[in-house]
Amino acid sequence: MLKLILACTLISIHTASNAHDPLSGAYERVSLTNVRTGKSPEAADRQGLLIMAHGHYSMMTMNPSRRVLDNDEVALLNSEQELEYLKEWLDINGHTGRYDASDTTLTWYRDISENPKEVGTESQLGYEWIDRLLVIYFTLPNGDRYDWVWRKLD
To answer: How far apart are alpha carbons 151 and 145 in whole angstroms?
Structure first.
């Protein structure tokens, strides 16, 4: 009986914590757009996944059209070709850590990042729901606002 009560309590806590966090879930990247220019700084086929749950998030975007070479092909590259190949492979955006959210502000606390300079930093981002899409937005120092659109996965 005690196990049953404990199981029901854990289920209700899990359900309640997700009910109070409207951002909890998994999302696929739709777009990243400079609002002023209407253009994206990323490749048209850029893909991404954002997962937020239990106060933690993980996000990564990348270009799926990156060349794939096997080890023998990589060994044959000269220094210039190898550098170009590595630049293609390093064109990712990925970080993970804790998050907090209010009605309009999302704060990411980066514990791990593809950019070592970002480890231990935090980002304050705005967010809103538009037509069932999560729009996370931020403004660069030059004043340009970017809308980063994500679609929740079922």
So the answer is: 20
